[in-house]
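Structure (tokenized):
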């Protein structure tokens, strides 16, 4: 497979790609505007751009671009100079080769996202897209004591949903099993599951894995566990980083309870 953009090479070298600027000055659904600032000799480490962008220089601008393949190019972008980049460049870094500070604004145009030929090989989610996925987040504050427990269609199980990403299926909830309740069958989850036990006692029967107050439990995506039983009424903080189940398990009678 070709590696035109050097993502495979970066992966082989163990290089984790960085951000394309030091801080985001403004972001909305259309643009993400970075401040790029380099003191003389300073470098912005290896990164890649997933959107077309415009650079507006605010000073300095005698820089060197070096790709991960070792190709070097110098720039001359004094105050007011604008550059429009409309094609995906290989992984590169940027170094200020002058004796004055380089300052610019880099405006990413988010309506276009480039695909890389080697992206599938690295298995890495483009950093720019991770940032896009996070846009939906907003500051929330919930007093969980003010929420009612919502009963599910499995007897003795209820929850207080705290946060959900409708796009990815990820969720954070408080869950409660009454004493004697539990998940009746071996099963697996469609994403990584994380549990922190706040009270009670919950036991995965075949493996004797025991969740008691203070215990953190991580069950990786696809790992079979259960059946499980609450030896005492118990409460967990439970986090899934994606959908809970591949299909609705038969111990729930409605789809809503399986997410
Ligand atoms: Fe760059
Ligand atoms: Fe489970």
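Design, position by position:
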């Amino acid at each position: 497979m070709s590696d035109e953009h050097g993502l495979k090479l970066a992966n082989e070298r163990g290089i984790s790609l960085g951000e394309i600027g030091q801080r985001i000055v403004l972001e909305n659904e259309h643009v993400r505007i970075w401040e790029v600032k380099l003191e003389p000799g300073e470098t912005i480490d290896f990164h890649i751009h997933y959107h077309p962008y415009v650079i507006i220089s605010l000073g300095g601008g005698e820089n060197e671009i070096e790709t991960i393949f070792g190709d070097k190019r110098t720039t001359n972008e004094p105050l007011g100079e604008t550059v429009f980049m409309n094609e995906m460049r290989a992984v590169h870094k940027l170094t200020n080769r002058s004796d004055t500070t380089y300052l610019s604004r880099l405006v990413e145009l988010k309506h276009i996202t480039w695909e890389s030929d080697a992206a599938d090989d690295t298995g890495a989610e483009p950093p720019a897209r991770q940032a896009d996925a996070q846009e939906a987040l907003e500051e929330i504050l919930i007093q969980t004591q003010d929420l009612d427990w919502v009963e599910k269609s499995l007897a003795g199980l209820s929850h207080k949903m705290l946060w959900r990403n409708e796009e990815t299926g990820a969720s954070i909830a408080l869950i409660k099993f009454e004493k004697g309740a539990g998940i009746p069958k071996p099963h697996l989850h469609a994403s990584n599951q994380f549990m922190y036990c706040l009270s009670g006692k919950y036991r995965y029967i075949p493996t004797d894995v025991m969740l008691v107050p203070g215990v953190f439990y991580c069950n990786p995506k696809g790992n079979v566990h259960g059946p499980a039983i609450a030896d005492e009424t118990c409460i967990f903080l439970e986090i899934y980083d994606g959908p809970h189940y591949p299909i609705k398990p038969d111990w729930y009678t409605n789809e809503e309870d399986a997410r």
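Reviewer-requested clarification: Residues 20, 47, 49, 92, 94 surround fe (ii) ion (ligand 1) (CB under 6 Å). Residues 144-258 form a domain with the Jelly Rolls fold (CATH 2.60.120.10).
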